[in-house]
Amino acid sequence: MNFYKYYEMLAETPKMILSRMKEKTYSSSSAGSVHPIEKFLRSPWMQQSGICFAVDVGANEGQFARMFRASFPDAFIVSFEPIEECFQQLVNNFKDDSRFDCYKVGVGEKKEIITFYKTNFSPASSFLKMKKETASAFAIESDCGQEKMQVDTLDNLLLSFDVPSRSFLKIDTQGFEMKILRGAKNLLDRFDFVLLELSLCQLYEEEPLFDDVYQFMIEKKFVVKAFLDVLKDPVMGKHLQVDVLFGKA
Fold first, then answer.
1. For residue 106, what are the domain limits?
2. For the chain, how are helix, strand and coil distributed in percent, rounded to 5?
């Protein structure tokens, strides 16, 4: 969800909070600073990795895809986004990019139709219900409706693509990451890098935590390569979320 600087904005009006949150989500600031993930993608190590294919799950309006495109101009990007309004903006944002494709569908552990929980801040919407404490702390309206949505696995959705060995997978789906990983059992080992946003405490109901996902990735022969960003409680100093880059062991 990338709640960057959220606690610092709690004194502002909800409208101001959401406006600035949208700017902070996978984007550089107006002052010209570079987002930690984009800075890492531009690092010599990543630039020499040979990555030529990226899969973006939970694309929203294409914030991450823009950073990836800026860092890897020749890579092919495939994005998945289930929210209609976000998907249409995603399509528009990349309408002139011939090496980009996107699909309006949710991604999960199996093909099914399940409930999607909407919030007034689209990057916080999820197939898991946000906990009341999370909504209150971050001034988010979590009861903005529910919708039945189609979900399918990465194994199925990427059947028409010849996923190369030098590929990058990013998943940012508000606690749904484990189910998506389980639905990629035939393809996961094709990715050299997997970027996951993981929680250290539950922000959504039934959300797997860092230890659960970490153990899963270790069993799949991945190791932690980098911690790219951390969300902290500025009052208590408690770490809440971390963006973790996994790579082949």
1. 7-248
2. 30, 25, 45
What's the pLDDT score for residue 234? 52
Residue 80, C-beta contacts closer than 8 angstroms, at least 6 positions apart: 55, 56, 57, 58, 59, 102, 103, 105, 106, 107, 157
Greatest C-alpha distance within the chain = 49
The answer to whether the pTM exceeds 0.70 is yes
Tell me whether residue 1 is in a domain.
no
Q: Is residue 2 part of a domain?
A: no
Q: Is residue 154 domain-resident?
A: yes
What does the pLDDT average to over 143-168? 94
- Look over the chain and give the mean of its residue pLDDT values, rounded to a whole number: 86
- 85 or 140, greater pLDDT: 85
Total tally of structural domains belonging to the chain:
1
Q: Mean pLDDT over residues 52-66, rounded?
A: 97
Distance CA 21, CA 6 (A): 7
DSSP-assigned beta bridge partners for residue 76: 53
Instruction: Give ∠ CA 152-62-108 in degrees, rounded to 5.
Output: 15
